[in-house]
C-alpha cells in the first residue's frame, strides 16, 4: 500500500572530508596477521578499481587492530559494508559503514529496550491488568499536512520502457495465454527485460538467473511502479516475491537514507516464520547489488530468531524489514522499531492475517 505525497529533493553540497567519509568503511577486531590483500580479495567482486586506499591504525609502531578502507564511490562503500564480514586468522572482523569505532550501542540499546518491555509486562500481570498484545501502542493519525512535511516519491513509471507500436490485442493474448484476470483495463504488462529498467546491478542479477519476467511480475510491476495499490493472487513458485520485492527496492532507494532508529521504509508482513525466512533469502540475493540493509523479525528457537540480535540489527538502521506480526509488535512496544518512515507496505498471504 502506498500513501500519497509529492516528491522534492535537493542534494546538499558536501565538503571534501564529508564526501570522503561517505566512501569510507571501518574494519575492526582485526588480527595482527591481516593484510591489504585479505580485504582486496574479500571485496574483489566489486571490481579491480573499487578500493582506492587501505589505512591501518598504528601507535608507536604497534598495530591497533583496526583500519579504514577508502572506496572510489559512496555506493561501493555501502555495498562493501553489506558483505558478510570475513574471518581472518580464526577471527571474524567487524565491518561498519560510516563509523569510526567498534560501538556496541545498538546491541546495548536492544538489550535495554527489550528488558524494559518484559518488566513492564510482568508488572501488568502482577497488578492483574489484562492488556492485549500491542494495546499499549498509540495509534498514529496521518494528516495531509504531515505528508506535505515529509514528501516521498512513489511514481517510477519512468522505468517502464514499452516497445513502441505494441497493439492492444498483444496484451489481451498475453492475459489469455497465462489465464490471467485483470480488474483494471489500463494495465499493460511487461513482455521482456528490455521493457523494464531497474538498477543496472539488479538487472544483471535478474537477467543472469531468469529468461523473462513471470506473468505476475509482468503485470504487478507496472501497477506498483506507478504508485498504485496492488492485490495479486498466484500459485506458489510463480514469482510473487520478486513481484513486490523489486518495486520495494526501487521505492526505498529513491528516499532519504535510513539512519539509526529511523527505519524501515519498506515493511513486509508475513503470517509465518518460514515465509519470512524465504523472503529474506530472496532479498539476500539482491542486497549487495541493490546496496540495501535488510532486517528481520520473527520467533523461533534457532540462532537467527534471537530477538536481541534481530533488534540490534534493526536499531542500526534497516531499509526493509520482513516480519511476522507477533515479533514486530513486541519490537514496536519496546521502541526497537518505528513506522514513521514506512511508505511501502506488503502483506504477503494477507488472507492468513486479516
UniProtKB/TrEMBL annotation:
Keywords for this protein: ATP-binding, Helicase, Hydrolase, Initiation factor, Nucleotide-binding, Protein biosynthesis, RNA-binding
Alphabetical list of CDD domains matching this protein: DEADc (cd00268)
Parts forming coiled coils: none
Superkingdom classification of source: Eukaryota
Ranges of residues in domain Helicase ATP-binding: 221-354
Signal sequence residues: none
GO molecular-function term, one example from the UniProt record: RNA binding
Span of domain RRM: 23-100
Residue intervals of the DEAD-box RNA helicase Q domain: 191-218
InterPro entries: DEAD/DEAH_box_helicase_dom (IPR011545), DEAD/DEAH_RhlB (IPR044742), Helicase_ATP-bd (IPR014001), Nucleotide-bd_a/b_plait_sf (IPR012677), P-loop_NTPase (IPR027417), RBD_domain_sf (IPR035979), RNA_helicase_DEAD_Q_motif (IPR014014), RRM_dom (IPR000504)
Motif (Q motif): 191-218
Protein name (record): RNA helicase
Organism field: Eutreptiella gymnastica
Amino acid at each position: 500500500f502506498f500513501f500519497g505525497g509529492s516528491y522534492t529533493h535537493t542534494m546538499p553540497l558536501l565538503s571534501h572530508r564529508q564526501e570522503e567519509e561517505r566512501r569510507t568503511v571501518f574494519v575492526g577486531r582485526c588480527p595482527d596477521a591481516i593484510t591489504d590483500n585479505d580485504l582486496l580479495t574479500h571485496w574483489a567482486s566489486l571490481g579491480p578499481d573499487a578500493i582506492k586506499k587501505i589505512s591501518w591504525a598504528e601507535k608507536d609502531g604497534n598495530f591497533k587492530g583496526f583500519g579504514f578502507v577508502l572506496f572510489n564511490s559512496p555506493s561501493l562503500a555501502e555495498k562493501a559494508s553489506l558483505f558478510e564480514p570475513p574471518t581472518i586468522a580464526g577471527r571474524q572482523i567487524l565491518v561498519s559503514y560510516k563509523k569510526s569505532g567498534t560501538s556496541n550501542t545498538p546491541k546495548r540499546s536492544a538489550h535495554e529496550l527489550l528488558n524494559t518491555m518484559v518488566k513492564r509486562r510482568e508488572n501488568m500481570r502482577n497488578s492483574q491488568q489484562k492488556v492485549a498484545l500491542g494495546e499499549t501502542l498509540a495509534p498514529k493519525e496521518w494528516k495531509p499536512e504531515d505528508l506535505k512535511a515529509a514528501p516521498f516519491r512513489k511514481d517510477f513509471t519512468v522505468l517502464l520502457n514499452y516497445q513502441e507500436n505494441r497493439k492492444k490485442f498483444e496484451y489481451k493474448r498475453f492475459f489469455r495465454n497465462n489465464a490471467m484476470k485483470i480488474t483494471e483495463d489500463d494495465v499493460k504488462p511487461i513482455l521482456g527485460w528490455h521493457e523494464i529498467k531497474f538498477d543496472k546491478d539488479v538487472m544483471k542479477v535478474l537477467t543472469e538467473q531468469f529468461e523473462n519476467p513471470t506473468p505476475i511480475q509482468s503485470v504487478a510491476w507496472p501497477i506498483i511502479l506507478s504508485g498504485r495499490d496492488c492485490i495479486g493472487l498466484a500459485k506458489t513458485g510463480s514469482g510473487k516475491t520478486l513481484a513486490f520485492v523489486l518495486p520495494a527496492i526501487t521505492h526505498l532507494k529513491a528516499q532519504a537514507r535510513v539512519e539509526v532508529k529511523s527505519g524501515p521504509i519498506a515493511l513486509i508482513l508475513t503470517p509465518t516464520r518460514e515465509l519470512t525466512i524465504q523472503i529474506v533469502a530472496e532479498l539476500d540475493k539482491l542486497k549487495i547489488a541493490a546496496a540495501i540493509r535488510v532486517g528481520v523479525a520473527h520467533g523461533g528457537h534457532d540462532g537467527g530468531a534471537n530477538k536481541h540480535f534481530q533488534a540490534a540489527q534493526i536499531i542500526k538502521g534497516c531499509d526493509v524489514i520482513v516480519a511476522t506480526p507477533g515479533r514486530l509488535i513486541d519490537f514496536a512496544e519496546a521502541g526497537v522499531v518505528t513506522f514513521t518512515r514506512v511508505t511501502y507496505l506488503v502483506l504477503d498471504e494477507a488472507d492468513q492475517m486479516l
